[in-house]
Amino acid sequence: MNYSRQNLWSFGISSISIILLLPVIALIVISFGNSDGLWQHLFETVLIEYVLTTLALMFGVLIVSLIYGLATAWIITNFDFHFKRILDLLLILPAACPAYLVAYAYTDFFEYAGPVQGTLRNIFGWTNGSDYYFPEIRSIGGAIFVLSSVLYPYIYLLSRTAFRQTPTSLSDVSRIYGRSKFWNVSLPLARPAVVAGSALVCMEVVSDFGTVEFFSLNTLTLGIFNVWIGMNNITAAAQISLFTFLFVVALLITEIKSRAGQRFNDTSQRQTNTAEKKVSGFKSLLFILICIFPIVCGFILPTSILLSNMKTYFNYEDLTTMGQVVANTFFVATIGSAIIVGIATFLTCSTGLLGRKFLTNLANISATGYAFPGTMLAIGVLVTIGLIDKLFEFIFSSKLISLEPFFLSGTISVLIFAYVVRFLAVGYGATLSGLSKISSNLNWASRTLSRSLSNSLIRVSIPLIKKSIIAGGLLAFVDITKELPMTLLLRPFDFETLATFTYQYAHDELMGQAAFPALLIIFFGLLPVIYLNMILKMNTK
C-alpha cells in the first residue's frame, strides 16, 4: 500500500477516534466553567455523603460478588456432581437482568405491603410494623444484595476460565507439599482475571442509576442527575462528573493492568487441569445449594415475581402502546449495535494492519466510554451536539451551502451517538479478542500478494473473526436495550424505550404495570448472555 493511502486510512482512524472522544473532552472543558457557587455549596454539604455512599456500595457489592463468583466458579470447574452442566448455564443468566428491574421486583415483594410481610403478619398475628423487625429493602444493604445478585457473573465467567487453565503440574506439586490447591495455586494464578472482573463490577456499581435512584441512595451518579435536572446547573453536574472520573480512571487502570497480567498464565493444552473430582451424597447436595442460591437471588425469584405481576395486571389493550415501545427499542438497539460493530471492526482490524502504535493507543482510548456512567457521558454528548449544531448553523447561515439548516439536538441521532460512545468498548473488546487469536501472518500474506488493506479486511480478517463480531453486536444490542440514564436524559420528546417505559411505571409505584416491559428486557438479554458463555467455553478449550 502506498504512502498516501496509508495516510488516508490513518486519517479515518484518527477522525473516528477523536469524534468518539469529543463528549469526554467536552465534559472536562465544561467542568472548569462557573457553576455560580453551587459546586462550593455541594462540596460543603452533600459531596462527602455522595463519595462515602458510593464507596460503601462499591465495596459491599464487590465482597458479595466475590463470594458468589469465586465459590461457584471453583465448584463448577473442579467437581463433577448432579445438574452441574445445567447450573453452569444458569449461573450466567442473572447477567441478563438489569439491576434496576431486580430492585423493582424485590421492592414489590419484600416491602411492608408486599406478600412476604403480609404473610408473616397473618401467620403470627402481627398488626403493624412495630410488632416485628424486617430488613428494609430500600437501603444500602438492599442495594448491595440486588447489585451483587446480577453482577457476580462478571467474576464467575472470568474466574471459571482462569481456574480451568490451571496447570495440573502445579496442582500435583501443591498436593505433594500439603498445600491448598485453591489458596496456593489456582487463586494466585487467577488473580489477574479476578481483579479484572472485580474492576468491571465496581465500574457497574459506580455507573448504576436505576437502583440507587429507586432506593434513594445519594451516590455520585444520582448526584449528577439531581444537580443537572433538579437544579438545572449542567456546569456543577459536570464538576461532580469530573470528581467521579477519578473513581473511573482508578478502576480502568486496575482492569487494564490486570488483563495485561493474564499473559503470565500457562494455558497449554497438555498441562490444563481437566480432571474433575466426582462427588455425591451430602457434598453433592451442598454444592448444588451453593450454586443455586445466587441463581435464585439474581434470576429465578425476580423473574417469578415479574411473571406473577404480569399475570395479574396484564391488559391486552396496552399491546398497541407496548408494540410501539418495542419497535422503538429494537430500532435504536439495532442501529446502535450495527454502528458499534462496524466502527469496532474497522478500528481493530485497520490499526492491526497498519501497525502504528499511536493509532492503536488512540483507538483504545476512544473505546473507554463503557467505563463512564451514563449520566456523565450524557452531559458530554449534549454539549458536543450543541457545538455541532452551532457549526451547522454557521455553515448554513454563511450561504456556503444552499440548503435549509438542520439541527441534531432533540433527535434520535443524539441518542444513537451516545450509545455508540458508551458501548463501543463492548464491540471493540469482542473483535479485539477475536483478532488476537489470529496469526498476523495471514494478513501479511494477503498484503504480500498485492491485496489492498480494504481487501485484506474483507476477505481475511472479518471472515476469521465473524463469531467475535456477532458476539460484540449481540452484547451491544442488549446493553442498549437496558440502558436507562442516558436514554432518560437524551431521548426525543415522547420517545419511549423498554427501559424508560418500565422506569416510568416503577417510579410511580405501579409495579404490576412495569412487569411486562421488564420481562421483555430480560428476554432480549438472554440470548447474548448464553452466546457469550458458549464463546468463552470454546476459547477455553
Describe the fold and architecture.
The chain has 23 helices and two strands. Strands 1-2 form a two-stranded parallel sheet. The protein has two domains: 39-309, Orthogonal Bundle (MetI-like fold), CATH 1.10.3720; 314-541, MetI-like fold (Orthogonal Bundle). Helix 1 (3-30) runs parallel beside helix 15 (357-366), helix 3 packs antiparallel against helix 9 (181-207) and helix 8 (168-176) crosses helix 9 (181-207). With 541 residues, it is mainly alpha-helical. Mean pLDDT is 84; it is low at 263-270.
Give helix and strand order, one letter per element, not per position: HHHEHHHHHHHHHEHHHHHHHHHHH
Report the major sheet. Answer: 2 strands, parallel
Output the radius of gyration: 25 Å
- Briefly, what CATH class of the largest domain? Mainly Alpha
Spatial arrangement of strands, main beta sheet: 1-2
Q: What's the CATH architecture of the largest domain?
A: Orthogonal Bundle
Helicity range of the residues? Answer: over 70%
Mean pLDDT: 84
> How many angstroms does the end-to-end distance come to?
37 Å
How much beta, percentage-wise? Answer: under 5%
Shape: globular
Question: Structural class from helices and strands?
Answer: mainly alpha
Poorly predicted tracts of residues:
263-270
| Superfamily (CATH H level) name of the largest domain | MetI-like
Ordered list of secondary-structure elements with their pairings:
Layout: H1 3-30, H2 38-45, H3 47-78, E1 79-80, H4 84-90, H5 99-110, H6 115-124, H7 140-164, H8 168-176, H9 181-207, H10 210-214, H11 220-230, H12 234-261, E2 277-278, H13 281-313, H14 319-354, H15 357-366, H16 374-397, H17 412-436, H18 440-448, H19 453-464, H20 466-482, H21 485-490, H22 498-507, H23 511-540
Parallel strand pairs: 1-2
Helix pairs in contact: 1-14, 1-15, 1-16, 3-7, 3-9, 3-11, 3-13, 5-7, 5-13, 7-9, 7-13, 8-9, 9-12, 11-12, 12-16, 13-23, 14-15, 14-17, 14-19, 14-20, 16-17, 17-20, 18-19, 20-23, 22-23
